[in-house]
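README: folding subset

This subset contains proteins for which both the sequence and a predicted structure token string are available. Records are stored as plain text. Below is the entry for TonB-dependent receptor (949 residues), shown exactly as it appears on disk.
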Amino acid sequence: MKIFNGKHARNGALVFKLSPVAAGCTVFLSALGANVYAQDAAVSQAVQATDANGNPISQVTVTGIRRGIEAAISIKKNSNSIVEAISAEDIGKLPDATVAESISRLPGVTAQRDKSSGRASAISVRGLSPDFNGTLLNGREQATSGDGRGVKFDLYPAEMLGTITIYKSPDASLMGQGIASTIDQRTVMPLDFAKRTVAIGYKSMRFGEHNNGLASGTGYRSTLTYIDQFANRTIGVALGAVKFNDTGAEQFQADGWGGGSGSATYNGQTVKVPNGFKTDVQRDPQTNKGVMGILQFRPNKDFVTTVDLFHSKNTDNTKKTGLEGSVCGSTGSYDPNGVLTNATIVDGVATSGTCTNFKGDVRNHIEAVTDTLNSWGINSRLRRDGWTVTGDVAGSKVKHDSNRYETTAGQPGDATNLSTISWTGYGGNDNLAPKYTTSLNYADRSQVVLTDHAGWGGGLTGNPQAGYVAVGVTTDDVKSYRLSAKHDLELGPLTAVEFGVNRTNRNKGRDQNEGNLTVGTGPYGSAPVPGTDVVVTPQSGIPVVAWNPLGSLGTIYQLLPKVDQPIQTDKNWDVSEKVSTGYLMGNLEGELFGLSYRGNVGAQYIHTSQGSTGSVVDTSNCAGNAGQPCPAYVIQGHHSYNDFLPSMNLGFELPHDQMFRIGLGKTLSRTKMNDLRPGGGVSVDRGHVGGAILSGSAGNPNLEPFRAKALDLSWEKYFSVNGAKGYVAAAAFYKKLDTYVLTIPKEVDFATSGLLSAKTPLPPSGSTIGILNTPVNGSGGNIKGIELTASLPFAMVTKYLTGFGVEVNYSNTLSSVNLQTTGLTVEDTGGVSTIPLPGLSHTVTNARVYYENAGFRVSVAAKKRGDFLGEVSDFQDNNQLTFIRGNTTVDGQMNYDFPATSALKGLTLSAAVNNFTNSHFIRFAGKRDSIAEDISFGRTYSVGASYKF
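--- output ---
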């Protein structure tokens, strides 16, 4: 098959000239598993040789930055759909260390940084949250680690991928599509290479270079890729391995308890004093190990079988050590109020002073998370007499293990020799501004012990609480089966017809156990703090004991289980989906109004059957305290529904190498898996405005997907001047959200809800009518926007600027959707009545300037996004919406490739800096100047070398 028609220009480059029929075939093969990008031969290059079976072997004529750019341009230009793409500059060399960082440079694409590590992990496309993307690996749907469907892209090492294509318009042959986009990650395919290729690489890294006294982290990233062909090129093998290690840089996190002041009596008058503070030093060590194996068997030009395996394991241990306490007030029954002495009063404010009875809480918390991904697939393709038949079987499984320990250390509840705390520099409204000192040495293990220091479990009348532990596992298992056929024909504008069936079975469940940590015997029990480590938090300047509590359950601590309604109903569930899809698509090619066009038209018919298992809590005998589990019983739910999703993509070839595209279609995105759980609980709300009433919360096993109609328009102009290639593009889109899933309070009759037992107390009125907070399918709204893109090598202007170039894009997105704030606290929202779409930044801008010549490759890239509503994991291990301030990050890279005439041929030296401007992660409450959390990550530096032979 001939993909390109054209002649070679100077320096072996290829002039872009597209054959419509070949372009359609190219996209078809990509969807079926034939890698659209050969790592050792960019798609933009012409076929120059064949093997013994007549199969094409691509040859390299472009290298480095331009190679990656031109391959991505070629994918975009040749696609029948509206797409964006990135392509590796060489084997294992995507533009960034992580997939999320690379694709967030594309128009209309943004990334949310992880608040612990600062690395990009979640992707939003066109103003929609990560759950609205369909994410594939080699064309197959992938499992996810959280309660939702958004993929954590740091589970996919960038070195193992060759191309990533983002489909912005629907395509009937594409499974697992999303309303926002479909992101298809492609690995290398060994038979696309002309010869054996081996590449090794190593980077030494330093993280969190703050220059503010905090310790930086160190680490490394090593890679190995082996690609070979055997048996007269009928067998191909590709093996890859990546190992990443980060010891974790120190981060300073401070919480001024909202900034409000406390009060105390001094010389007969009430004065302002610091209220309370919390200061932590955090480390976030991480590791990632990934391996990939691909085996291809192609005995002749008509048949090929590919087996691919992908394994990745991430560990992330976020450790916090710090001090928290109320300065003059109380935080529990064991913590008496302090008495103010030695104070300096200015305008009613104690700018300095000392308070007695201070009981500080030394915090040593850790959240250890391990995500393990295993993905595999077997694909066979047979061509015969104008027919292409493809079979595909695949699986993807992610296991998310989490262990969260929160421990308290200080003086026991019955201690009498309590500490004092003194301060200077207090202005009346910033609890973090003063300099604090204490009479007790909180780094002295003979005085500071593991204990319930403040009576947080209820004191003498409750349960001891020397800490808290939550241990859970979430497992997502996806299996898919696909059979399809394509037949070439000539029937008017119809050049081929493709049809097939796909079945996807998905099972996801969460199992969590948690409760109070107790130590010793009785309410005042204690135990020594292990080890000898000490940490000083920069703001307080007070040294505190430090230790790692991971694994201490059963040795130091005992568990007092806490089994209340949210734990039983929200954190323990199982959901299954069986999705059967039949599709039909025709490839089009013809002429309309004097313009040549190509494209496709088709539809999917989808039948979904979903089932779920959960619990209903009987609140009639449920105290909700540790050691007093709430009675519950298992409940199941089931629902099925059908969808018809038509789609059309047309691309018109305009004069002077221009293209105008239009995409129309209907798409869907399935709701979060935990929303489908059945069960919940109900109790009497005696504080209701209208009087006592039944109130409860539950999932909804009858939920159906988000559905939308989409219109996409794109104009593209391609250039090829002086051997350099580039393009400019302008795109517009409109999405009409027919349905949207909202968690809202609604009036229900609990007698028919399945949540009310015979023993459940009723309000005095005896009414079973009440308010239930549950996710429902509501009416939607619209999203619209524009995207402007330019990729311009300066050699197009003059040959004297050969090697220089720029990539820049800008997107502007608006939405009419405003959501209720149900489930969000006032602290998260700042009291606002509605919130915008999660993930929506009004404006996003990306720019990259590069230079490449004589072996040198240098690039500087900047990403800027506006404020948005993001998602973080809260202290209860649930995903929580929160406002995140926009930011700008700047990264730089420099590489040197030794020339082919050198004895060091194949060796590349590299250096890079990430987050050069030390852009912070800032959460705010409703108004952007109401800061809830401010985290500084610092810069990351790396130097390395790679060798290819």
